[in-house]
Amino acid sequence: MFRKILYHFGSRAVKIYSKIMFKMDIFHHFHIPRGAKIIVANHPTTTDPFLLTSISNGQAAVLIKDILFDIPLFGKYLHWAGHIPVKKDGGGEAFERALTLLKKDITVIVFIEGDLSQFLHKIKKPKTGAVRLAMLSGKPIIPIGIGVKMKNIHSISSVIKGVRELGKWYFKGPYALTIGKPINIKGNVMDKNKVRYLSGWLGRKISSLEKESSKRLNLSK
Hints:
By secondary structure, this protein is an alpha/beta fold. It has helices at 2-21, 48-53, 74-80, 92-103, 129-137, 192-219; strands at 22-28, 38-41, 60-65, 84-86, 107-111, 141-148, 153-160, 163-170, 173-179. Strands 1-9-6-2-5-3-4 form a seven-stranded mixed β-sheet, with helices on both faces. A two-stranded antiparallel ribbon has the order 7-8. α3 links the parallel β3 (60-65) and β4. The chain is globular and about 45 Å long. The mean pLDDT is 91.
C-alpha cells in the first residue's frame, strides 16, 4: 500500500512538473489501455523513465540501472516506488521480477536498447527482454517513440560509489511521444532465432515512431 501511495505521489509530481516545464507533444495511434502491459521505448534522455510513468495509465515499474539505486534519497525513492534495478553483469533477476509484476497486473516499462541511446534518431541493437516478457506473460507490448531536441539535453557526469555515471538530463523544452498500437506476441521463448527476429522488428517499429516524434518537433519550430 505504501509503495502504491508513493508511486502515485511521484507520478502526480512528474505530471505537474511536465505541464510547467515541458511542451508535451503526444500523438496516439492507439490510446494506452489500463491493466498490465509492457511499454517499450527508445531512451534518449535520463528523464525518460519519469515521463513515461506519468502517461502509463496505471501503476508501472521501470527497469533502471542498479547503480542509480545507490544515489542518496533518490535511490530510496526508486526502491520504495517499486522500480526494478538491473545489474550490469546480467538482468536475470530483474527479468523475473518484471514477469512477477506483470502477473500482478502492474505495467512494466522497458528501454529496448537496455541503456541510453548513443545517438539521437538511431537505436542501438535491441535487447530481447521485452519480447521474452511478452511471450511468457501474454501481455501486450505498447511501442513508444520518444523525440527530443538535442540542444535541450544536459550531459551531467557524477560519481556513484566510485563509478562514473553519465546522465543526459532533459529539464525543459519540447518532448514528443508517439504511441503505437498494441502488439501481441506469441511463441516459444526458447526459440532464440524468433526472439532475435521479433526484437529486431520491434526495434525498427520504435525507430519509426521516434522519427514521427522528431518530425513533429522539427515542424513545430
